[in-house]
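Sample 1 of the test manifest.
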Amino acid sequence: MRESTIMKIHYGTALAAVALVAVHILMRLTQGFAESLEYESVIANYRFVPYAIMLELILVLLSIHGFNGLRVILLEIRQGRTYEKAVSYGCFAAMIGLIAYGSRTIIMTNMGMI
Amino acid sequence: MAQLVGIANEQASTPLSPSKSITLRISRFNPGHDESRKFMDFAVPYENWTTVLEAILEVKKHLDHSVAVRYSCRQATCGSCGMMINGRPRLACFTKISELDSDVVTVEPMNNFPIIRDLAVKFERLFETHQKIKPYIIREDTELESDEREFLQSPKEVEQYIQFANCIKCGLCNSACPTMATDSSFVGPQALAQAYRYVADSRDKGKDSRLKIIDDSHGIWRCHFAGSCSQVCPKGVDPAMGIQLLRGYLLGFKD
């Protein structure tokens, strides 16, 4: 993939994540902040499908943005064909892993398995 | 023979007026012999108009002829005498001692360049990246037919790139760039500014090939917009702005 395409995704995910995280924080403020973090409130959020979808989107956006940022930092620290390939594929694999693990948590909680 | 001796004597006996003096600290390092850099101090007389390069040449002439320094035009045109002067990349011929406002003037080789000896550094990487971005007008009809005129440009079209044409390849921008310090494959602000210079030229048709070259994992996207390249340019070129304008092409904001 061209670097400009990757960076367009990088900037796009950042903007979208800022918007969605802002909604997420505002939702925490609709009730008392401490109260909103109580176990029942958190579980209720996960079981509310639109909110669970939003959490899933935040997870995907931040994972893409964060792991690409990590890839960029690591590419600037050291150079070399093998190292750069390892960094790129490693970051991609870690991103998929995190999204899969986070999605599993969201889906299981939404379905009442937790 | 007598005349030659006379000329030599005259050159050797023209020290600068000793009305004021500074301590010139020169970084000394020979990669072939030395393990680390060391500084040597020299007391050098100066006047208000004395440049750092003149002070270094004064040291070479009267105190230590073994100091290695690259210079040529002495008028900020050739871009040969770039060095760190009191911690900032500057042209030695374009920096007056009086404007530094310091009793000690420290000169070191430019950062982000391999050292040949003392203040002289290797420019291979800069020239390689400069050549890489194809720093010339690309078009198929470069050979004019007899009844054709030159490729005319309006003042507005010239304005798009003319400041970037002032680059003298002195390397100060690359020396100041924080990304150049860590990323040995980064194309650098000098080459990126020159890429913009040709991309923005209305006579040039090589935009796509140049954008492809800089759209690399060590290309334009590794610039963090620190802006230090523009701060240190002695010719008023603004590489940081050129890089942002180039990004406009790659992001689709400009055609």
